[in-house]
């Protein structure tokens, strides 16, 4: 099993597990390897060094920690992914009918429930002007479909 450090064209880093190098290349060619944050199929391998245990004696290597400024905090990304998963799990996807469904609930024509979907910027403004509360949020593309 090969564990590869991968990165999409937008710079999101993630890990992938493959049976072999050929398996990775084959899956990339069939656009099966996607960024879990944005769904980008332009995925490249990052440089990584293998760890080899050549003796039974364990020796801790000297610290080579490098602080890289201006990198998004992993904790923020993890929190955003967790929030996104909860939203997907606890809402009904009404797709392109979001504005219509939000209005029906607001005016008492249908039961109130947690919904999510897509709408245009103009339609979102119109909803707010009508007093309908909405929360625009971009969900990771990978969460919108079935998860493996």
In short:
With 148 residues, this protein is of the alpha+beta class. The chain has five helices and five strands.
Please report which band the strand proportion falls in: under 5%, 5-15%, 15-25%, 25-35%, 35-45% or over 45%.
15-25%
Indicate the radius of gyration in whole angstroms.
22 Å
Structural class: alpha+beta
Distance between the termini: 18 Å
Domain unit count: 2
Helix content: 25-40%
Largest sheet: 3 strands, antiparallel
The DSSP helix count reads: 5
Give your account of this protein's structure.
- This protein folds into 2 domains: 2-45, no CATH class; 75-134, no CATH class.
- Helix content is 32%, strand content 16%.
- It is built from 5 helices and 5 strands.
- The protein has helices at residues 21-29, 74-90, 98-106, 121-129, 141-144; strands at 2-8, 13-18, 43-45, 92-95, 115-117.
- The strands form 2 sheets. Strands 2-1-3 form a 3-stranded antiparallel sheet.
- The two termini are 18 Å apart.
- The relative contact order is 0.13.
List keywords for this structure.
2 domains; 148 residues; 5 strands; alpha+beta
Furnish the topology, listing elements before pairings.
Layout (H helix, E strand, L loop, with lengths): L1 E7 L4 E6 L2 H9 L13 E3 L28 H17 L1 E4 L2 H9 L8 E3 L3 H9 L11 H4 L4
Parallel strand pairs: 4-5
Antiparallel strand pairs: 1-2, 1-3
């Amino acid at each position: 099993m090969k564990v590869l450090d991968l990165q999409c064209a937008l710079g999101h880093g993630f890990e992938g597990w493959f049976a072999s190098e050929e398996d990775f290349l084959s899956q990339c060619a069939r656009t099966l390897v996607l960024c879990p944050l944005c769904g980008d199929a332009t995925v490249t391998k990052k440089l990584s060094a293998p760890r080899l245990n050549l003796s039974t004696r364990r020796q801790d290597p000297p610290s080579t920690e490098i602080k890289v400024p201006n990198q998004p905090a992993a904790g923020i990304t993890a929190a955003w992914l967790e929030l996104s998963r909860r939203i997907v799990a606890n809402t009904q996807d009404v797709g392109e009918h979001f504005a219509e469904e939000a209005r029906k609930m607001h005016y008492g024509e249908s039961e109130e429930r947690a919904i999510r979907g897509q709408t245009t910027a103009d339609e979102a403004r119109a909803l707010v002007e009508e007093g309908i509360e909405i929360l625009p949020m971009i969900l990771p593309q990978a969460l919108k479909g079935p998860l493996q």
